[in-house]
Amino acid sequence: MDFALFLEWTVKSLVLIFGLLFGFAYLTFYERRLLARFQVRIGPNRAGPWGILQPIADAFKMILKEDLTPSQADKVLFIIAPVLTMAPVTILAAIIPWGTSVNILGREITLYLADISVGILFLTSVASIAVYGIVIAGWSSNNKYAMLGGLRSTAQMIAYELALGLSFVSVILLANSMRTLDIVAQQRDLWFVILQPVGAVIFIIATLAEVNRAPFDMVEAEQELTAGYHTEYSGMKFALFFMAEYEKMIVISMIGATLFFGGFREFWFLKETIFSVDRLPWLGPIYLFIKLLIILFGMVWVRATLPRLRYDRLMALGWKVLLPLSLVVVFITAAGILLKEQLNNSLYLAIIPVLSIFAGLVAVALVARDLRRKENARS
Amino acid sequence: MHVLEPFFALIKGFWTTFRSFLEKPITYQYPEVKRPVRPRFRGRHELKRYANGLEKCIGCALCAAACPADAIFVEAAENTDDARYSPGDRYASTYEINMLRCIFCGFCEDACPTEAIVLGDNYELSFFDRQDGIYAKDRLLEAVHDPIMLTPQKTPPGIFTRSVPEMQNPTD
To answer: Of the candidates A278, A294, A309, which is a domain's last residue?
Structure first.
């Protein structure tokens, strides 16, 4: 390994880590401003022009706050927990491709950190480590609300990880590869969201549950659990949890963009123009960033719109609706690909969206019927 | 139709929030832009003067008696024609309102026989020192635009004999 390669990796890692930190800080700002607009307010606009220094003020406040450790807490685990939540998120950012490669000073530099052949598998395995952090935080705090929050989080994450994993499977089948680069390359002509819309919807719902966002923020249900697993945390340790949560949002949105929305590839209407990624590789990161902003806007929009789910309904949705539906979707995807390969006609791929939308409609109808029956039984 | 009903409901909900996203924020940028108060708003008290500058307050302490929070302290002294503060015999030599106790009920305003104390528009009453919470006459008394109007005034004898003026019905 020559020195230049080492330097390249170091620089890229640093860019990624600091980019995530910066992204976290400004995601909180982005969210607060957007949420304020949804509630016909203005939002933070005092610190600096348009309030752009607000995240810095928040960071200072966090750092200067007293770092409290409860006397009865399990000290070692209490300190490890935030780190354990934070680390996997940062690791995950490594597998997201920002572009193909660019030429800087005569050196071909790839716009991704790690090109793992089993990228998606790596993603699911690393992502599930984060739940340990939350459980340990809940346990070591010696606080019943934290404990309940941690337990809820475990149950929720396990329930939705299955649906999430299965929505990955349909993408893997479509791309015929687990490499994120291959998946993006396969979406040159058609984004997978068009080929597998129900899979994308399942992914989005499961993602919201995985990152504990509204309407699935049962883990931190203020009215019931004060602050959930991080009730006892303050100062920098709390900031780490907060950071992990928002960075998870960023990373999972980028993964969503990569898997279903063409990753760093240009928007469909820019294909074959000068703005194509093939012509200008530097546009890759910009396209991914735009897609990221759009997905995050969607997340904030969902938070502004939907109320929190009741816990039993949350579990019922995960186990009784999303899991069977995603199994059906995987089956349909596999069948469609098999038909296409056996009969050698790409048109057969069209049965994938048609059948999966049908399956999705059936699922929605069944849920609606069930809810209506409960309503009738009550009245 | 039945199958798509949940989707219509979902779209309706999301559209509702998106519509409010497009609305103009209703926030007042407070320190720069102040929201105008209502006509009968009850803010900080003001001790009013007559047109010639004499104080309306005659030191009767009815406001102190009416105050449910016991926030007002009044001490009266005698007027003379050489040093006249208010019409009639007596004036308030000390008039203090403890803003830490005041509940802004406006009973003092109602109790006042001369309409001397009026709850004004000022609601920016923050202070750092507890002692600053006690507003004395120097801060409560209405400002004058002409130094001639300042009290005490030297007045000709036999004019300002009546403590309570002719009153009209309130307009607001």
So the answer is: A309
State phi, psi for B45 to the nearest 5 degrees. -75, 155
Mind listing the pLDDT tens digit of every residue in chain A (379 residues)? 577 778 888 888 888 888 888 888 888 888 888 888 888 888 888 887 888 888 888 888 888 888 888 888 788 888 888 888 888 888 888 888 887 777 776 677 777 777 788 888 888 888 888 888 888 888 888 888 888 888 888 888 888 888 888 888 888 888 888 888 888 888 877 888 878 888 888 898 888 888 877 787 766 666 667 777 777 787 788 888 888 888 888 888 888 888 888 877 777 776 777 777 667 777 778 888 888 899 889 888 988 888 888 888 888 888 888 888 989 989 888 888 888 888 877 777 777 888 888 888 888 888 888 888 888 887 7
Residue B121 falls within a domain, yes or no? Answer: yes
Tell me which residue of A213, A88, A70 sits closest to A153, measured CA to CA. A213
**Domain residues for A32?**
1-54
Q: Quick check: A301 and B26 CB within 8 A?
A: no
CB contact residues (below 8 A), chain A span 302-361, against chain B: 304-306, 361
A294 touches chain B (CB under 8 A): no
Residue B128 within a domain: yes
ipTM of the complex: 0.73
Q: Which of B94, B117, B99 is nearest to B107 (CA)?
A: B117
Question: What does pTM read for this prediction?
Answer: 0.80
Residue A353 lies in a domain: no
Looking at the 3D structure of chain B, how many domains does it have? Answer: 1
**Residue B121 belongs to domain with CATH number:** 3.30.70.3270
Domain boundary among A260, A288, A309: A309
Task: Write the residue in A37, A305, A367 that is nearest to B13 by C-beta.
Answer: A305
CA distance B129 to chain A (A): 26
* Other CB atoms within 10 A of residue A316 CB: 16
Q: Minimal Cα–Cα distance from A251 to chain B, Å?
A: 25
The DSSP secondary-structure symbol of B43 reads: -
Q: Are residues A1 and A99 in the same domain?
A: no
- Whether residues A72 and A46 share a domain: the answer is no
Is residue B10 situated within a structural domain? no
Same structural domain for residues A227 and A281?
A: yes
Instruction: Tell me which residue in B3, B20, B23 faces A365 most closely, judged by beta carbons.
Output: B3
Are A305 and A163 in the same domain?
A: yes
**Is A340 part of a structural domain of the chain?**
no
Chain B interface includes A36 (CB < 8 A): yes
Query: How deeply is A7 buried, as exposed, middle or buried, from its count of CB atoms within 10 A (0-12, 13-18, 19+)?
Result: exposed
- Number of domains chain A is built from: 2
Tell me if A177 sits within 8 A of A183, measured CB to CB: yes
Residue A17 sits in the same domain as residue A126: no
Pair type for strands B45-47 and B72-78: unpaired
Taking CB atoms and an 8 Å cutoff, what residues of chain B touch A37? Answer: 21, 25
DSSP states of A183-232: HHHHTSSS-HHHHSHHHHHHHHHHHHHHTT-TTSGGGG-HHHHTTGGGTT
The parent domain of residue B127 ranges over 45-149
